């Protein structure tokens, strides 16, 4: 464990020393991956899925705040939907406006969770969504991940409607097919319920302040996710691949534990409690220090032989011998 802590400190020092370059690289990759996933989910125009656009969005994301990235995110989705159905695009715009007025302007820091949701769904890692939200956002992050889930399933429903119309399997307008699928989409409601329960569970365990509460909340949240998904899939008559879901949850748990390990490490063996009072209250304070490991510093002193002094002395002796001979 001590070696892991040493490696963690080295990594954090490396990131701190080159923070600007690393942050720029992470922002470039996040912008590229975000719009790559959006291009695959809403792939109705070639431009928004082109490598040029993806690279440009990665570069732009380096210099813009998260609020501007969120606005571009909504605009790209709206333009993609408008390309196939103006009615669906207007419905999406109305949903985004209501979401912004009711929630996002009050909790602007949660917009990053909304944009993460379709990406994790695209890469088949939806279990990461409630685990991360429960770890870092708490209950306040629930509306953001629900809105992100709605965007992902809107993309799948529109894609299925377009495919049905192109193959002749269905007839009518795209918005009517999407509305019919949305009303009967039990899988969307299943994920809504699972995400809410997992976020509440992880937040409750983490805020208990018990020993190893971070790690316990991640493990319990992952196990509860699997149980709820299988139970919900059974009652909703939805096909669930057992091995694939278990593997996905294990990968999600490993990712969450790595991020939590880099975020903070708490030493519960050095826990302290304090009691003090003032004129109105009596206070009980529980202090648990973070773990920090300092590497031993070695001072290396380089010793060089004074060869130049020896050569100077030899020269001096030679000159004295010459003068002595001349004197004789």
TrEMBL record:
<feature type="transmembrane region" description="Helical">
    <location>
        <begin position="136"/>
        <end position="155"/>
    </location>
</feature>
<feature type="transmembrane region" description="Helical">
    <location>
        <begin position="88"/>
        <end position="106"/>
    </location>
</feature>
<keyword id="KW-1133">Transmembrane helix</keyword>
<protein>
    <recommendedName>
        <fullName>ABC transporter permease</fullName>
    </recommendedName>
</protein>
<feature type="transmembrane region" description="Helical">
    <location>
        <begin position="21"/>
        <end position="39"/>
    </location>
</feature>
<keyword id="KW-0472">Membrane</keyword>
<feature type="transmembrane region" description="Helical">
    <location>
        <begin position="51"/>
        <end position="76"/>
    </location>
</feature>
<keyword id="KW-0812">Transmembrane</keyword>
<feature type="transmembrane region" description="Helical">
    <location>
        <begin position="188"/>
        <end position="205"/>
    </location>
</feature>
<feature type="transmembrane region" description="Helical">
    <location>
        <begin position="112"/>
        <end position="129"/>
    </location>
</feature>
<feature type="transmembrane region" description="Helical">
    <location>
        <begin position="217"/>
        <end position="236"/>
    </location>
</feature>
<feature type="transmembrane region" description="Helical">
    <location>
        <begin position="242"/>
        <end position="263"/>
    </location>
</feature>
